[in-house]
Amino acid sequence: MAAPLYGTHGRIVAQPGKGDELAAILRQAATGLEANPDCRLYVVSRALDDPDSIWVTEAWKDRGAHAASLADPAARELIERARPIIAEFADRAEFRPEGGKGI
């Protein structure tokens, strides 16, 4: 039996007025993951009531694939660009995706 999928859902809060910039960086991350078969889903969403809150929902082949993605040099570069404009990681949940469209 295959290992269960691994997922995260979290809200990243940008420094005031930096939501557009942070969302653009996270969308670049999504584009970079298109060729990674271990990434099943990477969705960047904006909160309608808070322009500086960005939600990211991810689904991966397994926890190890997610960890490996964070070590990729392109991902590290985007993380370094995003770090100064992140105010906080406000909410985060880990979960086991079990199916649905996009998985």
Task: Give the secondary structure arrangement, pairings included.
Elements: E1 6-14, H1 19-32, E2 39-47, E3 50-60, H2 63-71, H3 73-82, E4 86-95
Antiparallel strand pairs: 1-3, 1-4, 2-3
Helix pairs in contact: 1-3
Q: Class in CATH?
A: Alpha Beta
What is the percentage of strand-forming residues?
35-45%
Main pleated sheet: 4 strands, antiparallel
**What topology, given as strand order, has the largest sheet?**
2-3-1-4
Relative helix content:
25-40%
Mean pLDDT: 95
CATH level 3 topology:
Alpha-Beta Plaits
Shape: globular
Question: How many angstroms does the end-to-end distance come to?
Answer: 17 Å
Count, helices: 3
**What is the string of SSEs from the N terminus onward?**
EHEEHHE
Weakly predicted, low-confidence segments: none
Q: In angstroms, what is the radius of gyration?
A: 14 Å
Number of domains: 1
- The second-level CATH architecture is 2-Layer Sandwich
Number of separate strands: 4
* Structural class designation: alpha+beta
Structure description:
The structure is a single chain. This protein is of the alpha+beta class. The chain has a single domain, classed as Alpha-Beta Plaits (2-Layer Sandwich). Helices cover 32% and strands 38% of the residues. It contains 3 helices and 4 strands; from the N terminus they run E-H-E-E-H-H-E. Strands 2-3-1-4 form a 4-stranded antiparallel β-sheet. Helix 1 runs antiparallel to helix 3. It is globular.
